[in-house]
Amino acid sequence: MREDLIIQTITPTSHNLGDFRVHRALPAKERTMVGPFIFFDQAGPAQIGPGQGVDVRPHPHINLATVTYMYEGAFLHRDSLGTEQLIEPGAVNLMTAGRGIVHSERSPDTDRARASKLSAIQTWLALPDRNEEMAPAFEHVAEDRLPLIDSGSARARVIMGTLWGQSAPVTTYADTIYADIQLSPGGSVPIDPSADERAIYVSGGDAALDGLLLQPQTLYVLRPGVSATLMSVDGGRVVLCGGEAFTSPRHVWWNFVSSTTDRLMQAREDWEAMRFPLIPGDDQEFIPIPQGRPKTVSYP
What we know:
2 helices, globular
């Protein structure tokens, strides 16, 4: 057992959103970023009854990229660029906010008509200084375009970056690693020191790292530069994420991330005044700005 592998253990906060729960590991009081990852949510798993659905109303982002990866169920993504894209399990939606974008995520009509399931990992990536105010963009990468490494006892899909000798076609702005690992009973997979900062999150089942038992719904930040073997007794699902360490601070408030607090406050004013572009076909409702004095979280 090697306790020296783990430099930080983060227990997510849990939020009940009515039909499902969200476990939020980042940002946390003790740590805000792992590589470019500055937001890490596990949504569900949840059962949604007929006639019901998830409606994440239009809301804005700046200076970040959102990454949606579905385990079960589907979301219909719409944004102010005019994008309308259904995302289903195994695919990736990457939305780059840059200088500003508005989007919504809703259950598609086909899911609302019957009982359905929802399970997803949603993350935000901070953009490097040079990309913060870039033009907003969106890309969808289908499941069959993402590399899948299958050893028989473990299957790992590379979502972003290069891992196990395979590279995902999803755009990255900073060095990034991101993978969905499914371990069969008795299965294992090597975790190499391929990034400045790395973390492992157990989203379901059981897993251990060099014999150190990992708890579900917990984010483990790994010591830089060390190799280890991820394994499971009864089977488990694990997310590996990380990338290059940011040397300049990032500030977070509500749906906004930026290298300056002034930019966050400008985005707040712009959303209150509805100066952001609207979503074609989904412009009749929106999530209002939170009330009260903004309190930003900063890293490093």
